[in-house]
Amino acid sequence: GHYRATVSSVTDISGNVLSDATSWMFDIRIPNQWIANTGGIFGTGSNWSEGGIRDLDRLIIDVPGDPENITYNSGTYSIESMQSEENFILDGRVFNISSEAVVNGLFTWTGQSTLDGGGVLRANGGLAINSTGSNKWIRNIQVLVDGSSTWINGSILFMELGSLLHYTENSTLEIMNDNFVNLVSSASDYPAGLINDGSFIKKGPGEFRINLPFQHNGTLDIQEGTFEVYDAKMTGPGTITVRSGGTFAAHLTTTFDDRFPLLETPLVLEDGGTLSLRTAYLRTADGIGITGNGIIALGKSDFYNTGSTFETNGDIVSEQFNFMNSSSAILDGTTHTKTVLMEADDEVGLSGTGVFEISEALIWNYGYMTGGGITKLLETTTTNINQDFGLGLGDRTLEIYGEFIAEGGFMRLVNAKKATIQIMPGATWRHQNDFQFLGTGATGYVDWFVINEGTYTKEGDVGITQNRINLENRGTLNLDYGFMRADFRFIQTEDGVVNLPVQSAPGTDLSNGSISFGNGFLDGTLNIQLAEGFVPEIGAQYTIFAGSSIEGTFASVNGLEIAADRKFELEYWNDRRVYLNVVAIP
């Protein structure tokens, strides 16, 4: 109603008169209040008196008792500040905050709706984003999230105009199903569009994709499904753990350096966990690597045929390392993995100065290994090469501790003046058929160095047509069939052993062993292995070593006996040939 108030005088608290009698007029209106203290709809046509709440400078929502659900779902509402002790639901409308809104209950965001206004929203009781396929917008506002939060049912969040979504150190976010966070505008007054200082947990199938700057300072636990950084810069010292069935993925469609994801703490790949890079460049900070027994897949994608790059000087332990579709890894630390699949074409693959250890299998279909580092194939590793693609090795050492079968195809020297293959003690290299070492042919290139301290066996049905190598034998060299060609140098050390077969008459086929080379240096042991039942003719001559120059002689020669009336004699001729002559015994 309309009222008049009249007073006889106005005094202070001590009774001193401040003024004489006075009066004034005022109105008492119906207050904004709940019809029922059980929550309800906040908006036009709601159970708020007068049909809604007018735009106010400040609003306090506090219903006695346990928190109730307050739902705003009508039109556009603007407010300077708000404090709600209740659970606040934003459902499909626009909510403008010019200063600060504090929700101490759970803030649930559902439907197609927008947060705007240039202010700050503090979701102290957690933020639940839930809506199947609905788009949500954060425009020119900071959202600070504390407490327990969820993100489910295929929500798509667009952020623009310098907006920030910040999960604080006391927050926990559980992510379910397919969800996407997209950066609409790159304009930003904040260091990142999404900040995690708390705990992110990826649960359930589907993909959570981040397409905006991501500052990761807390923990990320990928238990199932995929967590993907897509065309976005990722920084921060937060930890990442990928469990069985989970995948951490990075994907770039641009080449901007400032968008490359950067890992500043170790990535933990547990059994069955996967790091997947699709057309991406992922770097790690100094000394940061990967631990666990998961799978690293570079460039492996059903939709993209271009490659990825992974760069680190930290240590890596993984179950499987896949190079696919023009992908590469620049590894300056120590990497240990059980299985490597090399299918990276276009002169890419493994590079870097670090040590790359493989303990079970190297499946080398095509791709290059370069960069000055060492690739170690451990004792339990089996490798089989039989490809017509160019397998490249350049300025790198391949150390073989297990079994390496070079069945067919070729290996090419790439992007360097030399490459080294070292067959370690106890290891086996089986050189079959027409496998070739190809060099560059460029002036000043010294090409391949093959150092054998284990067992190098030439076997198969055909000879070797070209080998631009320097071969140093410190172990056992078996020439089971065909001849061996070393275009540059052949060095037999004092510990080296050559087992050379004689199985037919000279010049008839390739069943008799021989080695040709540029320069030769002979020492160690030569064993002549005469085929059972074969007796060569007296006067026959076998050329077993041929070069442009030969220095030294074998310290020991075995197997010269043939029969009672004939034997082999070794002849060093003109420092260019070593003949095996069949002579009569007087």
Topology:
Elements: E1 2-7, E2 10-11, E3 17-19, E4 22-27, E5 40-42, E6 58-61, E7 69-72, E8 76-84, E9 87-91, E10 94-103, E11 107-110, E12 113-116, E13 120-123, E14 127-130, E15 135-139, E16 142-152, E17 156-160, E18 164-176, E19 179-183, E20 194-196, E21 199-203, E22 207-211, E23 214-216, E24 219-222, E25 225-230, E26 234-235, E27 239-242, E28 246-251, E29 262-263, E30 267-269, E31 274-278, E32 281-284, E33 290-292, E34 295-298, E35 309-312, E36 316-324, E37 328-331, E38 334-343, E39 349-351, E40 355-369, E41 374-377, E42 382-393, E43 397-400, E44 403-413, E45 418-423, E46 428-431, E47 436-438, E48 447-452, E49 455-458, E50 469-473, E51 476-479, E52 483-492, E53 497-502, E54 514-522, E55 525-530, E56 541-546, E57 549-552, E58 556-558, E59 561-563, E60 566-573, E61 577-584
Parallel strand pairs: 5-7, 6-8, 7-9, 8-10, 9-11, 10-12, 10-13, 11-14, 12-15, 13-16, 14-16, 15-17, 16-18, 17-19, 18-20, 18-21, 19-22, 20-23, 21-24, 22-25, 23-26, 24-27, 25-28, 27-30, 28-31, 29-32, 30-33, 31-34, 32-35, 34-36, 35-37, 36-38, 37-39, 38-40, 39-40, 40-41, 40-42, 41-43, 42-44, 43-45, ...
Antiparallel strand pairs: 1-4, 2-3, 56-61, 59-60, 60-61
Walkthrough of the structure:
This protein has no helices and 61 strands. The chain has a 57-stranded mixed beta sheet that branches. A two-stranded antiparallel sheet has the order 1-4. A two-stranded antiparallel sheet has the order 2-3. A hairpin with a 2-residue loop joins strand 59 (561-563) and strand 60. The chain is rod-shaped, with a radius of gyration of 39 Å.
